[in-house]
């Protein structure tokens, strides 16, 4: 006999398990994992709670829920994350792109046609690829100190059909650009244990930690930049004043929650 359960039954098993594991958005997570396994939009689950779940799909969902119970991020379990208007492949080699980082893209969108932009610490390629997707007239390049992150960025560029110049490099290339964008690691080393498990257990340390006050990679980048080079640097809100102090004519932009998130200025 073929045992078939329903979406409602599967959700009523998954949601309490995720809640008990401390997942903050248990229902949403369960729906995302399930919708992907069933290859339907999440709204379909809500509209059709009686929809059948085959034993094979139930096994896939069960395995995904087990991973989420261990607090693996949903994006790593699904292997992808949306960022602005593109969908990116992500795995444990790269940071999961965050909504606040879209501010770096928005700043670069203000550049005139044909301007050159370089994304330092590109990770999955999120910033550079989203920018190239929206502004194919710009000359966009990107680099990362991590060879495995560059592999992910290359796979994303190929999948999106975007031609992005990528290189493995620590710090800034020795060329000039109209604007350098950087979401470098900025978590202070001592803050790591206080981060949620999704981050501290699963995201790459090289993408997170920035030394005693979190600002070592940003300071190194600014020190490498030629006099007058324009930089847009993402940081945590409490680091805004310290980042402004590194630059000439700094202006800090706020994210959608009103927090100081990206500082734009010139190297001096
Ligand atoms: C916070 S992650 C950001 C990834 C991506 N830009 C994003 O916003 O999703 C920082 C990235 O910088 C890279 N990285 C760390 N130190 C670096 C350095 N000194 N030079 C270049 N890349 C660096 C890491 O490998 C990681 O991919």
Could you provide a short overview of the structure?
By secondary structure, this protein is α/β, with parallel strands linked by helices.
Offer a few descriptive terms.
single chain, 268 residues, alpha/beta, Rossmann fold, seven-stranded mixed beta sheet, two-stranded antiparallel sheet, binds S-adenosylmethionine
Sheet with the most strands, sense and barrel status: 7 strands, mixed
- CATH homology group of the largest domain: Vaccinia Virus protein VP39
**How many strands?**
11
List of distinct ligands in this structure? S-adenosylmethionine
Order of helices and strands: EHHHEHHEEHEHEHEEHHHEHEE
Question: Count the helices. How many?
Answer: 12
Task: State the distance separating the first and last CA atoms.
Answer: 74 Å
What structural category characterises the helix and strand content?
alpha/beta
* Inertia-based shape: elongated
Radius of gyration: 21 Å
Helix content: 40-55%
* Strand portion: 15-25%
Could you tell me the mean pLDDT?
A: 97
The low-confidence parts are none
Q: Under the CATH scheme, which class of the largest domain?
A: Alpha Beta
The CATH architecture term of the largest domain is 3-Layer(aba) Sandwich
- Give the CATH topology of the largest domain: Rossmann fold
């Amino acid at each position: 006999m073929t045992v078939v359960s329903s979406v409602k039954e599967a959700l009523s098993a998954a949601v309490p398990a995720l809640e008990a594991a401390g997942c903050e958005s248990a229902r949403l997570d369960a729906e995302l994992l399930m919708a992907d396994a069933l290859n339907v939009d999440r709204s379909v689950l809500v509209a059709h709670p009686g929809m059948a779940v085959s034993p094979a799909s139930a096994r896939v969902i069960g395995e995904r829920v087990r991973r989420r119970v261990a607090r693996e991020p949903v994006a790593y379990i699904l292997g992808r994350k949306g960022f602005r208007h593109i969908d990116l492949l992500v795995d444990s080699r790269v940071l999961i792109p965050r909504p606040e980082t879209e501010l770096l893209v928005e700043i670069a969108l203000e550049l005139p046609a044909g301007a050159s932009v370089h994304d330092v610490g590109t990770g999955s390629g999120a910033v550079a690829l989203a920018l190239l997707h929206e502004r194919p007239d710009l000359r966009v390049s990107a680099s990362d100190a991590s060879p495995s992150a560059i592999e992910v960025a290359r796979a994303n560029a190929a999948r999106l059909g975007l031609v992005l110049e990528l290189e493995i490099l620590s710090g800034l290339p020795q060329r000039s650009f109209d604007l350098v964008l950087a979401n470098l690691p900025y978590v202070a080393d001592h803050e790591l244990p206080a981060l949620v498990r999704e981050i501290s257990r699963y995201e790459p340390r090289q993408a997170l930690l920035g030394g005693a006050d979190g600002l070592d990679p940003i300071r190194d980048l600014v020190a490498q930049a030629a006099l007058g080079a324009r930089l847009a640097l993402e940081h945590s809100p409490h680091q805004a004043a310290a980042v402004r102090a590194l630059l000439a004519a700094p202006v800090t932009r706020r994210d959608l929650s009103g927090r100081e998130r990206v500082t734009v200025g010139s190297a001096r």
